[in-house]
Amino acid sequence: MFLLIKFKAHFAGYCHSILGVILITNLKYRVMLEYAKVILPKVSFSKDLFMKELKKCINWVEEDQVRELYLWCNDHFKEIYPDVLAIAFAGLIAFK
To answer: Which helix (H) or strand (E) holds 43?
Structure first.
């Protein structure tokens, strides 16, 4: 009986650790999306720098957040860099 209780406690701790890692990972990617929304306007003065940072941001965010990043970029930079957005998101988005 003691062994079973000890196993349950250990397993519960393991599950708690896994859950913590998942939450931290999700938070990390959410933070990266918010970071992209801060950094991209700051580097938009340079087309090359903007493209470089945009590519990094696309790699940082989760796959399901690429759409959100695309829509946000489209709202903010479509007039300035339509070609950069088309190149950076080419093959990543099947929606418009």
So the answer is: none
Domain boundaries, the chain: 2-89
H/E element, 44: none
Say what angle helices 47-60 and 63-77 make with each other, to 10 degrees.
150
Q: Which residues of 73-88 are buried (b: 16+ CB within 10 A; e: fewer)?
A: beeebeeebeebbeeb
Q: How many degrees, rounded to 5, is the angle at CA 58 between CA 84 and CA 18?
A: 175
Q: 10-37: per-residue pLDDT in tens?
A: 555 555 555 555 545 556 556 889 999 9
Locate 29 and state its tokens.
Answer: 């990617």
Q: Model pTM greater than 0.70? A: no
Measured from the Cβ of residue 36, the count of other Cβ atoms closer than 10 Å reads 22
Task: Quote the radius of gyration of the chain (alpha carbons, Å).
Answer: 20
